[in-house]
Inverse folding.
């Protein structure tokens, strides 16, 4: 079994072919997940194992900075009956064939790095630390081997960062925070703006329905967060345009089927959100193109709807 999420990184030098890097994991013969990066240049695929497969590890995000590749993810640290009870947040630095692991947390609490970005000379990994019901939204600033944790929430309500981006000298971490107890509250779609030591929370939804941000990108002076509002069969794929404190919701679907936007990218003045739409057979992979208030759905179901499918990343060359 192989799982991956990728990023396209241009090759150095003018006129050279583009190089793609995909990050994820590969299950070995013993059933253990080994964090992986695959370098793709034309028809050549070069797999790079980030660990030896002794412990379960997964790469969940990837970025290029200063000629090195960085993959963020998690390492299983405590098991019970074969089930992971605790993770350690990790980043792996890749320089050619050399892999340098960077441990972000001490393992006292479960932690995961779901997204990673670069700004200036620093890297920023984002995710959560804590249990499944009281996670703290986190960003870790990485300068070489020095790791500086940045806490976005106080742990009284479950919260998680799913994506992080840099724009205009600030960082924007996107995800969700519960407005009540995990078992009876709703997730509220959130963005946290980080400017130096100042953290400004930006609330995207009112909390009447469960809502989460899966990805965030910047275009000009605006931010665009992609995710969903509602749960299961009535979930609505959403994009939220963020201009300072002004939030403009863009509804991608009518809510008759459960839909989620998992990723977002910009090209030529248009936005493209990728995700899935529920149907009676399962899920159908989708891309929605948005031009202002105009939304154009582009079905990507490659199996004719007889098999479940989903799109988890999008890029427009």
């Amino acid at each position: 079994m192989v799982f991956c999420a990728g990023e396209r990184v241009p090759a150095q030098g003018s006129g050279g072919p583009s190089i793609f890097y995909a990050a994820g994991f590969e299950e070995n013969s013993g059933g253990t997940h080994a964090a992986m990066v695959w370098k793709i240049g034309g028809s050549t695929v070069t797999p790079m194992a980030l660990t030896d497969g002794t412990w379960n590890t997964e790469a969940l995000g990837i970025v290029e900075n200063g000629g090195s590749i960085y993959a963020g993810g998690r390492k299983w640290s405590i098991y019970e009956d074969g089930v992971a009870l605790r993770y350690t947040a990790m980043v792996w630095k890749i320089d050619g064939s050399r892999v340098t692991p960077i441990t972000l947390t001490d393992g006292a609490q479960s932690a995961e790095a779901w997204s990673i970005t670069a700004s200036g000379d620093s890297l920023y990994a984002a995710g959560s630390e804590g249990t499944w019901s009281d996670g703290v939204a986190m960003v870790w600033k990485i300068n070489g081997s020095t790791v500086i944790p940045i806490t976005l929430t106080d742990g009284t309500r479950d919260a998680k960062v799913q994506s992080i981006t840099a724009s205009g000298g600030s960082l924007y971490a996107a995800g969700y925070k519960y407005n009540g107890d995990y078992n009876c509250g709703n997730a509220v779609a959130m963005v946290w703006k980080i400017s130096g030591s100042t953290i400004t929370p930006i609330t995207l939804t009112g909390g009447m329905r469960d809502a989460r941000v899966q990805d965030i990108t910047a275009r000009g002076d605006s931010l665009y967060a992609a995710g969903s509002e509602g749960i299961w069969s009535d979930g609505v794929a959403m994009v939220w345009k963020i201009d300072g404190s002004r939030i403009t919701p863009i509804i991608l679907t009518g809510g008759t089927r459960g839909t989620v936007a998992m990723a977002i990218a910009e090209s030529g003045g248009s936005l493209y959100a990728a995700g899935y739409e529920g149907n009676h057979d399962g899920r159908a992979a989708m891309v929605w193109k948005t031009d202002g208030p105009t939304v154009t759905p582009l079905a990507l179901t490659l199996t004719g709807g007889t098999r479940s499918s989903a799109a988890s990343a999008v890029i427009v060359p």
Summary: The chain has no helices and 24 strands. The first strand starts at residue 2 and ends at 9. The chain has a mean pLDDT of 86.
